[in-house]
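TL;DR need structure tokens for one chain.
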Amino acid sequence: MMQDVMTICAVRAELGPLARSVARWRERVTITDRGRPTAVLIGVPELAELDQAAAGRDQPAICPTCRPGARDV
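>> reply
TL;DR here they are.
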């Protein structure tokens, strides 16, 4: 997986092709503002994987079979 660094102005000028490239090749693009990283552009599949991994960390370690939102009776 490749990660490029681009300024906000460069991203604005190339957003269409950049978004397609990120989605197709699973690249990440760090967007900078005045030389400081401010955001990262990633594809939707990678975002879904990150969300799924984050949801898995929310599960209690002592009860791996419990569902989120389930209540004890």
